[in-house]
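User: Let's play a game. I give you a shape written as tokens, and you guess the letters that built it. Ready? Here's round one.
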């Protein structure tokens, strides 16, 4: 990781914020595709480890057939992380590895599903939304936990499969707390870009099985990152 003093962090934050604000104006929460055309959904996740004072990361992408739920392709990238962690600006740290992994794909996914947020972000620019402008494809954010935005908490959905409550901040829907499985904690779904929230929810629920509260693409990407990190960090 690069060493940045307090002034450097402040400058980076302002620069990153300017980029996010510009991109936010270009977000479109409407479907740019037809459901019947969906073939491949890609799950995206990243993991990190330290070697001495250097931080490394890996990005794993797992492509899943929309109908059969079978794994079609798996790729990963890895390398040194040169951007420090700054809350709210994770995309700047993760995008290089994501784009490197995407280059290795032999098939082009119809939608990318991220282990992380999209529109459910202070500036509507979580990793799923930010990455969409580089992937040129619709994206969905799926987070395991909720990072409180502007002091607003979420309302727990009813304890039944498919139940949800929308997360509304200043009269705007940012995302959704979704109970994918009964008696299990909800996950947090948000649009990335070029897709609406109801469709995002429908696609997520299509990939839920008894093995996890997480949709298959995200779960498989998470499994791969743990596997690759273990192999590379030895």
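Assistant: Ready! My guess for every position:
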């Amino acid at each position: 990781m690069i060493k940045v003093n307090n002034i450097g962090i402040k400058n980076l934050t302002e620069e990153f914020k300017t980029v996010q604000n510009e991109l936010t104006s270009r977000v479109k929460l409407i479907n740019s595709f037809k459901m019947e055309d969906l073939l491949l959904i890609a799950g995206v996740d990243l993991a990190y480890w330290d070697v001495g004072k250097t931080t490394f990361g890996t990005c794993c992408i797992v492509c899943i057939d929309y109908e059969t739920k079978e794994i079609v392709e798996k790729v990963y990238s890895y390398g040194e992380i040169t951007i420090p962690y700054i809350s709210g600006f994770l995309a700047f740290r993760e995008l290089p590895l994501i784009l490197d992994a995407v280059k290795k794909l032999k098939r082009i996914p119809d939608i990318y599903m991220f282990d992380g947020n999209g529109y459910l972000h202070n500036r509507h620019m979580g990793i799923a939304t930010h990455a969409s402008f580089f992937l040129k494809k619709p994206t969905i954010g799926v987070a395991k936990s909720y990072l409180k935005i502007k002091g607003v908490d979420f309302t727990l959905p009813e304890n039944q499969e498919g139940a949800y409550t929308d997360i509304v901040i200043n009269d705007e829907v940012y995302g959704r707390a979704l109970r994918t499985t009964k008696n299990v904690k909800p996950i947090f779904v948000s649009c990335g870009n070029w897709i609406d929230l109801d469709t995002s929810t429908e696609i997520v629920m299509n990939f839920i099985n008894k093995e996890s509260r997480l949709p298959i693409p995200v779960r498989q990407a998470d499994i791969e990152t743990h596997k690759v990190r273990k192999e590379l960090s030895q």
